[in-house]
Specification:
The structure holds 3 protein chains of 3 kinds. Helix content of chain A is 71%, strand content 0%. Chain A is an all-alpha fold. Classes of the chains: A mainly alpha, B mainly alpha, C mainly alpha.
């Protein structure tokens, strides 16, 4: 079991790196936004993992339990998720505006049009 | 305390690992798919698996939010944006190798950084020592709310939450200004040119 | 999508329970999982489902974005107003304990009111974003 104690962090890092790749490599702007969202959820995973306590339960006080997980990361991530969908919507709105102005959302084509 | 309810359980870790594998697989599928509609739908599945993982990690409030936001609303927004921008991703002419190298390098450094972190679920970890014990012991008596997440969100960190709501409000106004106002202006201009563009957008 | 009979009937059956469930999540957030953020998103999702099946103009006739922007502002004002009210009652900004003679009771009342403010603002913003992106 000793080797398994960091597996959550490693999976979160793997997700973050897949997200990072999706931000750099594709030329499609919507794909980049998907990568950004994936990177965000990876950070959420790190936070919630830090808050987990062995043998604990959800932090809703009940006389039947006396070990609870840390509620603070839950609060931070709860609000972060709703903020992330709002900021994603701003990004999508910008992409739609770019599509209307340039007729494409591929970064290479936009660069080419700008160079002309 | 009965050991079944409180003791460390191996099944939690196995479910945890299973969900993590599913997450990484879904993430890889999303990145490699060229059809953007399919990618958005798989992203919805990714969020739903994430919500299940939050339940395993005791974050029920976060799971609730993730299921409603990630799997529901985000997918709808994605689909709407893809409907407006085109469903097929163009094959990029750039080489993927530098991106893979950069990701692997950053990932390797981060994994090296995790080696000093306390283990999964360690009750002695520094993160569990500071303010959380106060919230858990006195939260219900001080606020009258048994759900400590709500108590911390709305009372102890009320100022922070006011800031978060401001960000959401500003984002909503930003979207309205970016697309709502532009649409009105274009319709005003389109009226003299026959308004064909406005009608096509509405379909 | 508006001519699909199955979708129309199922949506009509589902939307009222979704809106009702959002209100339950809003009010039960003190005792179980839930609260203003979740309730706002679920309420917004109910309106978004209505818009997806019956068309954006249907949502616009129920809740025009101009009106929704005012509603979102009112939600934020309700939140900040509780802060000001607790200052008037003798506490500091957002110190709800001052709202009542009993600090615990004041805290509970303050939490319920600001969660309602959060719920209103989030629901309105989600619906605004849908209406604008769907154009």
């Amino acid at each position: 079991m000793e080797a398994l104690t960091h597996v959550n962090y490693w999976a979160a890092i793997a997700l973050a790196m897949i997200g990072l790749y999706a931000i750099i490599a594709p030329s499609n702007l919507v794909k980049k936004l998907i990568g950004l969202g994936m990177f965000q959820t990876a950070i959420f995973l790190i936070y919630i993992t830090v808050g987990k306590v062995e043998g604990g339960t959800a932090p809703i006080i009940d006389p039947a339990y006396d070990v609870y997980s840390n509620p603070l990361p839950h609060v931070l991530i709860l609000t972060a998720i709703v903020v992330s969908v709002s900021t994603l919507a701003v990004g999508l709105a910008l992409t739609v505006a770019i599509k209307r102005a340039y007729g494409t959302v591929e970064e290479d084509d936009i660069d080419e049009q700008d160079r002309r | 305390m009965e050991p079944e309810a409180q003791g460390p359980s191996a099944i939690d870790i196995y479910v945890d690992i299973l969900l993590l594998v599913l997450l990484v697989a879904a993430a890889l599928v999303v990145v490699t798919l060229r059809n953007m509609l399919a990618a958005a739908l798989v992203l919805g599945i990714y969020s739903l698996v994430m919500a299940a993982l939050w339940v395993v990690l005791d974050a029920v409030d976060v799971a609730f939010t993730e299921a409603a936001v990630g799997a529901g609303v985000t997918t709808v927004f994605m689909l709407l944006a893809i409907a407006a921008t085109g469903r097929h991703e163009k094959i990029a002419h750039r080489r993927p190798l530098p991106a893979i190298a950069a990701s692997l390098a950053v990932g390797g450094l981060l994994i090296y950084g995790t080696l000093d972190l306390p283990g999964f679920g360690d009750p002695e970890a520094p993160a569990q020592q500071h303010v959380a014990p106060h919230y858990l012991e006195h939260g219900e008596a001080e606020t009258g709310v048994p759900n400590i997440v709500t108590a911390v969100l709305a009372s102890y960190r009320g100022f922070d939450t006011l800031g978060e709501v401001t960000v959401i409000f500003t984002a909503g106004m930003g979207v309205l200004l970016l697309l709502g106002i532009a649409r009105r202006r274009r319709e005003g201009a389109g009226a003299s040119e026959g308004g064909s563009e406005g009608e096509r957008d509405r379909e | 999508m508006t001519d699909n009979l199955v979708l129309r009937v199922v949506a009509k059956l589902l939307i009222p329970p979704i809106l009702l469930f959002a209100l339950y999540v809003q009010m039960h957030g003190d005792y179980g999982p839930g609260g203003g953020f979740q309730a706002g998103v679920i309420f917004g999702a109910g309106l978004i489902l209505y818009g997806l099946v019956f068309g954006t103009h249907a949502v616009r006739s129920v809740a025009p974005p101009r009106l929704l922007a005012i509603i979102a502002s009112l939600g934020m004002l309700l939140y900040a107003g509780v802060g000001i009210a607790s200052m008037i009652a003798g506490g500091s900004f957002l110190e709800y304990g001052a709202l009542s003679l009993d600090a615990t009771h004041g805290n509970h009342v303050g939490i319920i009111i600001i969660e309602i403010g959060v719920g209103i603002a989030v629901a309105a913003v989600m619906t605004i974003i849908f209406c604008v992106l769907a154009e």
